[in-house]
Model the fold of this input.
Amino acid sequence: MLTSATQAAGVKDDRPAYRPFAVRVARLHRLSPHFTRVTLTGEDLRWFGTDRLDQRVKIVFPLHGRLCDIGATDPRTHLDGTWYARWRDLPPNERGPFRTYTVRDVRPEHRELDVDMVVHDDGGPAARWLAAAAPGEELIVVGPDVRSHESHVGIDWAPGTATELLLAGDETAAPAICAILETLPAGRRARAFIEVPDAEDFLDVALPAHAEITWLARGGRAHGELLVPAVREWIGANARVVEPARALGEQPLEDVDVDSEILWDSPVVRVLAHDLCGRSARCGSDFYAWFAGEAGIIRTLRRLLVSEAGVCRRRVAFMGYWRLGRAEAQ
Done:
């Protein structure tokens, strides 16, 4: 009988949080014109972390039809965490490119992992691979080892005890937002806005009663042209939620150059401390926001919520998943 990762893990130890997993494609399912679900399988996925949420993983793609060796089947590499050093030391013509994705679902008991990939035609290694992908093809997934004390590394969703939740992002953030909402505990209210290329990309999601998604079809508009106004309108219509979360003092924001720097800040709100928003008494807010997607748009949303609306920046997680016109740094 197959066992789950949670059952198999037993006592956690100090091994690295992430390790490479050797996998192969089990199934491909075209969810919409711009989303394909890739189901991966591999015996070692029994050890894959089960937290989901917005868990980030890296997928290493073949180069010139060959998958590079970074220790996916080497127990020593799993324990010493040297997969990236091995990748970096490879000759450039053997160094398979990697891209970052979000875990959509994981079923360790069945040795399966779902990754929803955005279908685009930018000519990059991920797009080329996906266009020709077929069951049986081999990949490497660098992801969480459930046996590690730090297997939660790579998760930025950290609302603490907040009960009023706002999420916003583009198609690259859709898998994370959907996974977060599907696992939302009772007693929390969430509103999400997701901008996708077309109306046919509105996905079916098993939402709890206290969560709502507004899908926005971009059509031929620029990135963020619908998302930013939608978030702005929500802020204006929800003063009862936003006002108690306002910081009392000034909150200078670094002017991040998204063309040369990474825009990323994911504060952990484990407990709503009395001085979180600079107040002398316990903060009356249970608000938390999570934004992810194209870095320029996320910078605008951060400015909108923190600088304009005055929300305490420690209540806002913002992640620039990608930048228009730039490839992911390796």
Observations:
- The chain has a mean pLDDT of 90.
